[in-house]
# Entry
Amino acid sequence: MDGSAKAAEAEDSPFEAMDALAGDTRDPYPEFAEKRKHDPVWRGTLMDHPDEQWAVFRYEDVSRVFRDQKQFSSEGYNETIGLVLGPTILGMMGSPHREHRNLVAHAFKERSLQRWEPEFIAPVCHQLIDGVIEEGRADLVRALTFEFPVRVIVKILGLPSDDLDMFKRLSMQLIGIAGDMEAGFNASLALKEYFQVQIDARRSKPTDDVINDLVTAEVDGEKLTDEAIVSFLRLLLPAGVETTYRSSGNLLYLLLTHPEQLAAVRQDRSLVPQAIEEGLRRETPLTNVARFATTDVELCGQTIPKGATVGVCMGSANHDESRWDDPEAFDILRPQVPHISFAAGPHVCLGMHLARLETRVALNVVLDRLADVALDPGDRDPHIRGMIFRSPTSLPVTFRAA
Ligand code: HEM
# Structure
């Protein structure tokens, strides 16, 4: 499909355009296992990048690359997504990164998260389930997982409900920029103007939301510039909305295809947190990110040359057999060993507590409202797909209203 056809489709159906971007790879894990065994530090790429390419696959190496900012820099983001989003926290290093992170972290404090659960997150999930409850069947990707993270962000940011459709369309175009550059750039500009109006409004009349927190955040007399706030808000779309949509779909797919584990979680809700962690490990929603070697670096007997792009394969690290027995199995009862889906080190995901909270609430709403929920594939062949971004194409289910 060419760019304009994709753009037209994105207008009509943001879901199809986003889903198509993941690509057709069904199961990258055998290839990851091969690489861990034979080429753990590999000269080559799983991503589409023009420079010299290397990739790391074992847990220890992935963890080391994330933690060693001096030798593996994230500044390359400024030349990739930074060109669209503006300078973001992801491409910052050292003390500017720390200071910036402290300022924005303020907006995601524990106290706010506790409030958001009853105020927005649960109501948003219930409202979406209300829309299908009478039907007795639904595609849970379309009905729930694709919808709720963007609706939650709208609430958290304090945007007017009337703007939801416009905001959703721009968000999906921005996230889908790899498929349609022009629509992505235009969406980025439109979001900049839109967010600037929201920022100005909060300066004249403070509100109780994340944009207000970003406008007023101050650490040691330093405040965020408007440009930094706008860039951060745009980053929340690929960083917070897309990942949560994919990870919650993955978890539901894994539970629906392992009915005995679904039944166990339904019966004992204290298993929900470990089911979420095992879902993130077994089906990592974002399998790879990039770093850049600032110097020649030796890893596993190989020398990665200065200037090389290094693919950091979290999807492979999460299946490292030196850390997990039978890593390809989905087993919510396995001994709990931390995975690396949220990265590690200075850039470890800032939204991981929110992502976990959103997923917990969405799963509990599904369990509370949909009795006997079961996959009903028909001719739809639901499956998880994608090499870098992974999530299910659809989750057709039948159920009874509980
Ligand atoms: C399951 C869902 C999520 C996954 C798997 C995920 C994964 C990640 C990963 C791997 C990184 C590090 C990227 C790198 O260093 O190259 C990251 C960073 C980040 N994430 Fe998440 N994320 C998720 C949800 C969220 C949510 C809900 C938010 C906020 C609303 C968020 C905000 C961020 C931000 C702001 C950063 C940049 C942190 C920094 O550079 O210091 N993420 N995330």
